[in-house]
């Protein structure tokens, strides 16, 4: 019986944690739908009109979802080989966070915002994205983004410095009455402007301020080119390299040119 | 006479449905102009001042267009080989939708918005775009867009998840008084911000909210690079493939100019 | 004396119309500065405060510029070989437009807006851009833009259709009270949104309207990639082709590959 | 003792001005943290609430930072070989500007905005970016930006002309009541619109004005492609050049992988 139990656990583990069997894929798709519906319910619950009209139905639905996610969490705990390692892993904690707020809201009375934490369930979608990872599209995109990341971080650091200096200058130039009432708020304005969002909740009113703002905008217009250029270049490189999936029979080197006949590392015929 | 009738139907079919003869092209261009004018009339009709001043003229014009489109619809039904298949096809339904609202407005009294449905006539423009499809420009663009579509869909899915999480966080951080009065509305704000539209109808007022918003904007600034990079890379690939398909029989060199007759490396005839 | 006069006219023509001699370049740079200053004066004149304080000085400066431009126009008319052809050419008319409004303002009393026409003097800057045209930078940019133009036109046509349909739908969905009071105005909103400008003077207030607007924004976010991709791809192609400046000694063919040894057209050794 | 003193100065110079030793790197990182903290204090000081609550603590912290930066400035002056050359260099002046305002604020009573000048300390971060310059990421980015700079300048000049003409036209078309009350302000609006920032503090209200604005937006939408394309193309070129500089001595093939030892085509040792 211990053997049968183990094999059952292994089979359940296969379904719940992996996505290579048909049952595993079906489980993942079901989970995806469940997460989406659950998030939809949370969203609708936050709308005053819906809560007034269909509050009871939403409440019941919410508990159905919480029940199902609790069951899923317990099953995961049961079938995984090292439950503690799972429970303290990133996705383990997330799985707990997906159900805990609902129970806490029973105990704590005034927990208005606690319920919103449940929306973090959506992050669990990325667990299911194991499925997507196998698609070539997402892989190419992921590779290009990973390659561009360090350049984009360097770029965002430079932008941050620019934004602090611009914000401080505008704080001095524009008075309190235009909304530039502190340096942090001026920095917020600088970000809103440089990224071309432009809410208009804070906007310069003096001639000098508008002139400086115009300069910042033109700068932002030229600067937006940089991250785009980085990702474009990476994707172009990715395409060029994507056909060289061969590995050398002699030294196992990869990354050969498209029409290579000999290994670039050991000179072996491919 | 049956024969003559058939050949007439065939000739009309050639003109109305195809675009390879001169008459067919003229018909398509005429239809294009008619659609554009008809949409213009609908637009002007919606402006209160124009309707007050030139209401009668617009009414007459509208019926002229409806009459012509009705005639066109009947001609199409008559000359097509399988009228039912046409009537239930996408463009068949669209052709009917282009004329039906005008007649329905005679019967139903209070049909203010029904008239606007007629603007869908514009979609019929794409029927005429058979013409454009033959232009190399549009073809290259179309190929690149088709190749980028799956990557962009994956990207928009990721954006959707991000937007729901960001919207929920802002719903918690910002109060009801800043306009973040429900999660769906906060998600709307997140989309407005991330796409750098930035209306300013809803904007964070607290320090923490503004800080988070600034982070979202910088993120959006980095993220906008992705779809652009995808399309750029596809177009670059398209160019590369449109020039270098031949390889030299003498030295196997590739990358010849489009209309090359001799190999650029060894001078061999291609 | 006729000979001397002719040679003077020729020399003046060389200075005024060409930019290959030192004097010609100096003339062009001087004209550039004059145009810039003149436009600056027009701008300052439109500011109520400046007009009140320095109205007289600006008035004098304006007449100095008008005098100089009139002189220039007369010199151009005198030294050009076919004065009528010049006077009716694009730049000839522009040169006249640069001075005429000032004189007309003497005759016509209430010519508030006539003065602003003088700002068209700025377009004359492009006459001087003959200078810039010789810079490699501008040439590469110009070539890429010319190559991308047809694709971008096709793209803008598609956008126009999209914008009319979206505007009409929003006109129906949103009421008069949100600012969507006619289809043209709704189309204006659709353009403001799709291009991510987002003034916020018109913005949807109903839930359905905000949902549709969010869709339009995400679409615009994906769509903005297209013109960028087009120009990027053209510039990448421009670089790849830019090194092949060789022309075949046998058949004068151009556009050879970078490391070509033989002509692709006639097989001649380069 | 003179010798010992000299060697101490040389060692201090090594630490303070260079970044190749471990001590030099540690000094730079420490300085970076100090600058960041100091700027944070200046930002917090500008927020009315913080100044009211923690004014004394911020004041003390500010003087600690000023003291440390003064010490650093004196050490730099002492250990550098030519103190005058350093004191009049760009970074020398900046180092002085970083400490001077604090002392001036002791003397001058009403120096509200003088304190904000201290935020220029942030520019000193770029001195420490010697560190970053050694990273391959930043170098590739820097090279691409330097190569794109002239093209982007030409582009921004063209945009400036466009913006002045568009602003003047809108000044004529739109009245004073929509906010277009002078040409400079209309130019400011044109920049806000063309760069897709779109505050909404000034926006057209007449039909004609909105139509023109829509045209400008569509133009801006197409134009934003240009700088992006420029940077993308430069980065793609950078990649291409960083991999293919070698050519095979046996068969003259190019396009080898970066660390290739053997030719991919003929197997010859490179």
Properties at a glance:
Four Helix Bundle (Hemerythrin (Met), subunit A); mainly alpha; homotetramer; 0% strand; 2 domains; 270 residues; flat; Helix Hairpins
Cα-to-Cα separation, first versus last residue of chain A: 53 Å
Extract low-pLDDT stretches of chain A.
none
Order of helices and strands of chain A: HHHHHHHHHHHH
What's the CATH topology name of the largest domain in chain A? Four Helix Bundle (Hemerythrin (Met), subunit A)
State the name of the first-level CATH class of the largest domain in chain A.
Answer: Mainly Alpha
Largest interface: B-C, 69 and 58 residues
Write down the overall geometry of chain A: flat
Q: What class, by secondary structure content of chain A? A: mainly alpha
Helix content of chain A: 55-70%
Range of strand content of chain A? under 5%
Number of beta strands of chain A: 0
Number of helices of chain A: 12
Main beta sheet of chain A = none
In CATH, the architecture of the largest domain in chain A is Up-down Bundle
User: What's the rounded overall pLDDT mean of chain A?
Assistant: 79
Q: Tell me the quaternary state.
A: homotetramer
Rounded Rg of chain A: 27 Å
In CATH, the homologous superfamily of the largest domain in chain A goes by the name Voltage-gated potassium channels. Chain C
Into how many domains do the coordinates of chain A divide? 2
């Amino acid at each position: 019986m211990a053997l049968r139990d183990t094999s059952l656990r292994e089979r359940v583990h296969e379904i719940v944690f992996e996505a290579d069997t048909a049952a595993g894929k079906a489980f993942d798709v079901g989970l995806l739908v469940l997460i989406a519906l659950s998030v939809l319910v949370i969203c609708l619950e936050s709308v005053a009109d819906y809560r007034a009209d269909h509050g009871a139905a939403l409440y019941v639905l919410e508990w159905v979802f919480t029940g199902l996610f609790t069951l899923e969490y317990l099953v995961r705990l049961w079938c995984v080989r090292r439950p503690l390692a799972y429970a303290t892993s990133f996705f383990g904690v997330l799985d707990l966070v997906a159900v805990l707020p609902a129970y806490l809201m029973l105990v704590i009375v005034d927990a208005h915002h606690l319920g919103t934490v449940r929306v973090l369930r959506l992050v669990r979608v990325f667990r299911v994205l194991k499925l997507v990872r196998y698609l070539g599209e997402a892989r190419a995109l992921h590779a290009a983004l990973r390659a561009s990341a360090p350049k984009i971080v360097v770029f965002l650091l430079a932008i941050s410095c620019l934004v602090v200096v611009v914000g401080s200058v505008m704080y001095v130039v524009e008075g309190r009455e235009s909304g530039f009432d502190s340096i942090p708020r001026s920095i917020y304005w600088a970000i809103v402007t440089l990224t071309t969002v432009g809410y208009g909740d804070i906007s310069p009113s003096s001639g000098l301020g508008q002139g400086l703002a115009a300069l910042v905008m033109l700068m932002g217009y030229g600067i937006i080119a940089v991250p785009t250029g980085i990702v474009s270049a990476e994707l172009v490189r990715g395409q060029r390299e994507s056909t060289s999936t061969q590995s050398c029979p002699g030294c196992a080197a990869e990354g050969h040119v498209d029409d290579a006949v000999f290994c670039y590392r050991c000179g072996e015929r491919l």
